[in-house]
Amino acid sequence: MTLIAHISDLHVSNISFDEEIFMAAVAEINNLQPDMIILTGDITDTGYYKEFEQAKRYLEMFEAPLFAIPGNHDARNLGYQTFEELVGEKSWKLTMDGDFTVIGIDSSSPDVDGGHVGRPQHMWLEHQLDECVINENFIIVALHHHVVPIPQTGRERNVLNDAGDILDTLITHEVDLVLSGHKHVPKIWKLNDTLIINAGSLCSTKLRGKNKNSYNVYNITEDEIEIFLNEVKGERFLFGKYPRNKL
Predict the structure, then answer these.
(1) pLDDT tens per residue, range 197-244
(2) Does the pTM exceed 0.85?
(3) Largest CB tally within 10 Å, which of 18, 88, 113, 122?
(4) Cβ neighbours for 220, distance < 8 A, ≥ 6 positions apart
(5) Dihedral sign for Cα atoms in the order 240, 92, 37, 4
(6) Do 108 and 121 meet the contact criterion of CB atoms below 8 Å apart?
């Protein structure tokens, strides 16, 4: 069994960040003892160096290994450079136990809210996914921008501008989970054999309607995938349950 916590959209700053909620989330996630934490971007609110320094101190409070990709807010004000200095690589590949692969993709562009993967990174992704298919790996791809529009988020503006090509690659390679954030609203789509999952905001004050700060937890066994939506300092309920793809 593999347990993964999926957090997103912290927006660390003096304005949009709720420290009390964040500290509660840290305690909850550490108590779960996940195998890893995947953070799908917008760690900071404006990409300033001091925000990244502050965010780094906060992220070190998590006890599980944490892997992050940048969001559009992180790419502002030269934040795309600071991300690599203080957080890590913007795109990466992680393989566990030889048959479980997580790929992080950078969909951000400097000072632009919309998402873009781009042809060079897309070619790299295709190559990594080809290897995963040959090795019959369980595959997770994480990126900040959503590849499918999210309901109850208003007029669609910031989906990937190359979403069609990226989505085709993800679906044809039968990626098991596609994780994203950006819109601060949790949602699950199932397209063919691929689960496309959006996370809410972990600790930002930028919440739509009655949505609460939350994070997703994935319980992955040999036979099924359980997805739990955890409201910080609130309820935890089963968000979805699906059989694993059979090779």
Answers:
(1) 999 999 999 999 899 999 999 999 999 999 999 999 999 999 999 999
(2) yes
(3) 18
(4) 1, 2, 3, 4, 138, 226, 244
(5) positive
(6) no
Which residues are CB-contacts of 164 (< 8 A; sequence separation ≥ 6)? none
Tokens of 110: 């400097």
Distance of CA 87 to the CA centre of its chain: 15
> Phi and psi for 230 in degrees, rounded to 5?
-110, 115
DSSP characters for 160-188?
BTTHHHHHHHHHHTT-SEEEE-SSS--EE
Fold of the 2-243 domain: Purple Acid Phosphatase; chain A, domain 2 (3.60.21)
Q: In this structure, are residues 62 and 25 in contact, taking their beta carbons and an 8 Å threshold?
A: no
Structure tokens at 81: 């450079």
Residue 157 confidence (pLDDT) above 90: no
* 3 state SS of 121: helix
Q: Write down how long the chain is.
A: 247
Whether 94 contacts 139, CB under 8 Å: no
Q: Which two tokens stand for residue 175?
A: 């990626």
φ, ψ for residue 74, nearest 5 deg: -70, -25
β-strand 194-198 against 187-191: which pairing, if any?
A: antiparallel
Helix (H, G, I), strand (E, B) or coil at 155: coil
Query: What six digits make up the tokens of 234?
Result: 């609130």
Sign of the Cα pseudo-torsion (139, 142, 143, 144, in order): positive
> For the chain, which residues make up each domain, given as ranges?
2-243
Tell me the residue type at 226.
E
CA-based end-to-end distance of the chain: 18
